[in-house]
Amino acid sequence: MQLLMSQMIKSVLSSIDIARDKALGQGLSAVEVNHIELCIEIIKEAAEEINKEIEDLPAMKEFFE
Known about the structure:
Helix content is about 80%, strand content about 0%. The protein is mainly alpha-helical. It has one domain. The mean pLDDT is about 90.
C-alpha cells in the first residue's frame, strides 16, 4: 500500500510540468497563469504532506489489521 501511494504521488508530481506547459501553450491571460501557478503550489504542498503520512504508514500497521 505504501509503495502504491508513493508511486501515485510521484506520478502526479512528474506530470505537473507537462500539464503546466500544455496549459501555458494556450495563450492564457496573466490572471490565468497566476492561478495555474497557485494550483501547482497547492498540489506540491499537499503531496509533501501526503508523503509524510505515507512514511508513517508502517507505524500504523495495527490499524489496518
